[in-house]
Amino acid sequence: MSAPVALVLVSHSTYLARGVAELAAQMAPDVVIRTAAGGPDGGLGTSFDTVQAAITAALDTVGATVPDDGGSPRARGGVVVLADLGSSVLTVETVLELDESLAGSVVLARGPFVEGAVAAAVTAHGGATLDEVVASALDAAHSFSPAGTPGGAGGPAWAGGAGGEADAGGERPASDTVTGRVTVRNPLGLHARPAALVSRKVAELGAKVRVDGVDASSVLQLMALGAIEGRELTVEAEGLGAAEAVRVVVGMIEGGFGEI
Amino acid sequence: MTLDADWAERWVRRAAEAVEAAKDELTELDRQIGDGDHGENMHRGFQAVVARLDAAAADTGSDTAAPGGSAREVGDVLKTVATTLMSTVGGASGPLYGTAFLRASKVSGRPLLDPSSIVALLEAALEGITTRGKATVGEKTMVDAWSAAVDAAERTARDGGDEVAVLRAAAEAADKAAFGTIPLLATKGRASYLGERSRGHEDPGARSTALLLGAAMAAALAGPGGAA
User: Fold this and answer.
1) Percent of chain B scored above 90 by pLDDT?
2) Which pLDDT value is given to residue A96?
């Protein structure tokens, strides 16, 4: 069964769109990812008809999996569109303006093309709603400057939650924060694939988990840690299922993701 | 001069000719500060528009024209232009001109245009372009030419100018504004990536706008008997 949110990647270049689709699909095999690339003559450019067809086709695939539970379209699923440059963006906007039936279930996310697509795909893979997938694509812009994504990038939920380090013994931990430590064992560390595995698992578990201060449900923030073999990481979680989440994440990293 | 659907069709056919004649010039302008496809893209789009009009003309009397053929509205022609350009142009000018003609078609749902409805047509087109492209005057884009055209058309209509005078004022202002983009620094569109190096070149979108509005004027001057 495919995820309730599908992606459409719009690019001037067929190679670029296919390449990004391949990259995103590797981390999110259950997400429908369609490309709309190239101009009307097949060269570099954008085609209204191609974009419209891709969006419609993507919407058809998720339409089949969306339960008819009366929820608003945005709360359920739909299509998130990412576009590379100028005319790709303008063409998507034109398609959305001309077909009012798409409103609410198709959203153009103005995030970075590569990072946004990867983040959106991984988020969608966890069964996220349309708004959540859009937010992850937009948030991906922060991955351009890891310095700009301190722990605060985890969102307001983390802002005041100075998690104590329970096993360090020095500070009094926040009542519902659980902390664990683990050393990265696989040679390549938390690169794309392991980061995607961790973030998907975290999304699945539903707990708020941080790894070295970054939001563990964000594949891009995990990758931006640059955690290679031998690095010790702090895993913190809070809220319902915190202990289980820390145990699972520590176990995954400890296990080396099958790369040892 | 009567500005009806036939005028609109003559306008568009002349625009296609003008674009064809200026294809290499537009491409060269775009090569200097953009991605070098504007001439080719516009040519492909307007050839497709002409093909659509030809096909419709071949069907006249059946399903394309209103009964009698004379009640066709200006907006009908403009809408055909809009949808065809959107599908066939390819670059940013596809959605930009497509939206411009679409918005223009919505205010031209009538058999005849008077001076104030020409102003409304131009205003709607400009509004469509700024909605889509988010550019404002002075950013070295087609908005500079459209905006100058709207201002000039408004002034002329207010001063009591007739249809041809309004179109002439719009075309002349657009032409002047296109040249006026040469010293400007591009801050929108592909040329903005060039920064300071965008100065000293005419914006290709402003130039193609001047061509289109020049064709609108020429179609009005020539009348139904003029060379198509």
Assistant:
1) 80
2) 93
A1 pLDDT band, cuts 50/70/90, is low
Q: Which member of A40, A43, A87 has the closest CB to residue B87?
A: A40
Chain B interface includes A45 (CB < 8 A): yes
b/e burial code for range B186-222 (CB count within 10 A of at least 16 → b) = bebbbbbeeeeebbebbbbbbbbbbbbbbbbbbbbee
* Domain covering B3-222, topology: 1.25.40
Specify the higher pLDDT residue, A257 or B66. Answer: A257
Q: Is the pLDDT of residue A166 over 50?
A: no
What residue spans define the domains of chain A? Answer: 5-144, 149-258
CATH label, A5-144, candidates 3.40.50.510, 1.10.3720.10, 2.40.50.100, 3.40.640.10: 3.40.50.510
Q: Is the pLDDT score of A251 beyond 70? A: yes
Residues 156-185 of B with CB under 8 A from A: none
User: Is A40:A81 a contact under the CB 8 Å cutoff?
Assistant: no
Per CATH, the number for A149-258 is 3.30.1340.10
CA distance A204 to A214: 17
User: What pLDDT does A161 receive?
Assistant: 32
Cβ–Cβ below 8 Å for B95 and A44: no
- Summarised one tens digit per residue, pLDDT across range B125-148 is 999 999 999 999 999 999 999 999
Nearest CA distance, A116 vs chain B (angstrom): 21
Domain boundaries, chain B: 3-222
A12 is catalytic: yes
With a cut of 50, say whether residue B199 has pLDDT above it: yes
Closest CA relative to residue B117, chosen from B75, B84, B82? B75
In this prediction, residue B226 has a pLDDT band, given cuts at 50, 70 and 90, of low
